Amino acid sequence: MSEPLLETRSIGRTLPGPPPVMLVRDVSLTIEPGKFTTIVGPSGCGKSSLLYLLGMIDRPTSGELLFEGRAVSKLSGDARAKLRLQRLGFVFQFHFLLPEFSARENVMIPMQRLAKLSYEEIKARADALLGELGLEGKESKTPDKLSGGERQRVAIARALANDPALILGDEPTGNLDSRNSENVVEWLKRLAHEEGRAVACVTHDLDIAEQSDVRIEMLDGMIEKVHRK
Amino acid sequence: MIRRLGFLVSIALRHIARRKRQTAVAVSGVAVGVGFFLAVSSLMVGSQNDFIRQMIDVAPHIIVSDELRSPPPQPGTRVFEGGAVAMHGYKLRQEVRGIKDWQAILAAANAIPGAIASPSLTGGVTIQLGGHQEALAIVGVEPEIETRISTIEDQLKVGRLHDLETTQGGIIIGEELAQRLGVRVGDIVSASSSAAQARTLKIVGLFKRGNTLLSSGSGYVLLREAQSLLGRPFIINRIGIKLQDPYAAQAVAANLEARFGYKAQSWQERSSDLLSLLVTRNIIMYTVVSAILLVASFGIYTVVSTSISDKQKDIAILRSIGFSAADLQLIFVLEGILLAIVGVLAGWLLGYGLITLLGNLDLPVLDGNQIPIDRSPMQYAIAAGASLLAGSVAAWLPARKAAHVDPVDILRGAA
Q: Smallest Cβ distance to A55: which of B17, B320, B324?
């Protein structure tokens, strides 16, 4: 077992009441680089809530989250935003592309915010990512001119923009037909296996869960079972 | 930092470019506000400057007269200096009216760099022509000096001030008076005062002033002519001083008064009631105009506020990508500022157009003159500054909401 990229120590998330609702309780898990991890479970079992905690969008109300060995749940909002920008990429069920911007510009946004590369380099990298995902020729199209599968691939390109260590997916195939869905899963697997990134996805699609290296089953906000290949 | 700002500006620009109609409404609100601010304030400031300039020009910047601010000390206190003495009912010493030692005051005033002091004697005479009598305040001047401190030369319709020197017993009177008396240049009138014999004066010039009351009741003669006509040889009762910087008048006047004891009035003191009227006028103007600009900024508030409500999903996605709360707030504040900038630019054009229009108006009351308009860039700067400030605040208020959007709520709601 390789060194975990992300580790949770009995994290919980309770919505303040009344009555208080426990979304996630006492979850301890590790997310490893090079592995495709899925989190499955029935609706309302807390799998999306857990993903938001892992993605540092939400803060746990108990327990600790370690990212690359560093406790991050008490970090300031800005520090967590910076970590997300540099190390994380998100892919959501709904592509969540910015409607005013072209495919290329959507991919450029995280890089422009990070401002590590020059504008020309950023543009070239965006085009290269879109090309890799088979979107050559569609760079200038706005999201409403793209098909569902294309949009989701633009979203993957955007998630990869800043070369993240961790890719998080919230039902990334939930809105796609089976062919496009298959395509996206292939991509996620490749990112883990060939590029050595940690990939973790929430899904209710058991076919996808079957293909993952680590399958975490959740029920009532708790981990019920962990399958490893 | 600048790069980040530029990037956030580009996002804000996209947002407002998408909402064309709302943007147009907000921008035109600001533009109309700025345009009318410029038109109104250029008029107000222009007329005020014109008014003040006339106030400064119409008379010397400082007038030293033979009056004292407090009564002269009692003879008793002169004898027993510092003593507790009070006397009543004694006979006061008769003093000759006029400024004593005026040469010293003149020298002191002329010693100020750029300052010119002109001595004069003013007194009342009666002008007679046929059976017609008119009271007239004559001003005895040295034409050589007087022309340099007053605008009388410009107001002469006929003749020149120097004609007083070349014509024995010459006098310059106002056009209105000349009309009433039915005289023209070259005519002879008779003048008398309580102190001396009547003598004849020849009209050598006519002046016209904006103020008919003033121009109908005064006349200019040579200083020594006035001295003999009023029976007060070698005496002057007024020193007019023109300064290089009119706004130094108050300080210089106070200084002269402290040194020589005679009342020295600056133009500000002489027209303090009018100046305070101008202050009130300015307060009214800026209140009304700020209200216009404030109302214009409501449009910006609405646009930014709606934009934030519409963009909840985008805000959540940008937050998840790694934009900070401050980034998001800034994007929406920038939207407001961009709207304000476009509005200001359009308003400048509108204002420039209105000012040009006003400047070309030919109103009958102005007697062929144009409306005084202040075209200084200062007005444009004030309008822009006020609009940008109002726009930023109007955008900042709703933009705080953008910073507080919890991405989890939005993501969960959308899923």
A: B320
Q: Give per-residue pLDDT as tens, A153-193.
A: 888 889 888 888 888 988 888 777 787 788 888 888 888 88
From chain B, the residues in CB contact with A67 under 8 A are none
Cβ distance of B7 and A110 shorter than 8 Å: no
Residue B378 lies in a domain: yes
| Structural domains in chain B (count) | 2
Domain that holds residue B150: 62-242
Same domain, B222 and B294: no
DSSP alpha helices (H): ranges in A55-96? 77-87
Main-chain dihedrals φ then ψ at residue B257, nearest 5 degrees:
-65, -40
Cβ–Cβ of B415/A93 closer than 8 Å?
yes
For B253, residues 6+ apart whose C-beta sits below 8 A from its C-beta are: B62, B264, B265, B266, B269
- Rounded to a whole number, what is the distance in Å from the CA of A134 to chain B's nearest CA? 23
Nearest CB among B7, B320, B325 relative to A57 is that of B320
Whether residue A143 has a cis bond before it, omega within 30° of 0: no
Question: Domain check: are B46 and B67 in the same one?
Answer: no
Regarding whether B151 and B281 lie in a shared domain, the answer is no
Q: What is the ipTM of this complex?
A: 0.89
pTM for the full model? 0.72
Same domain, B107 and B228: yes
Ordered structural domains, chain A, with CATH? 6-228 (3.40.50.300)
Could you tell me if A96 lies within 8 Å of chain B, comparing CB atoms?
A: yes
Q: Are B121 and B219 within one domain?
A: yes
pLDDT in tens, B327-358: 888 989 998 899 999 999 999 999 999 988 88
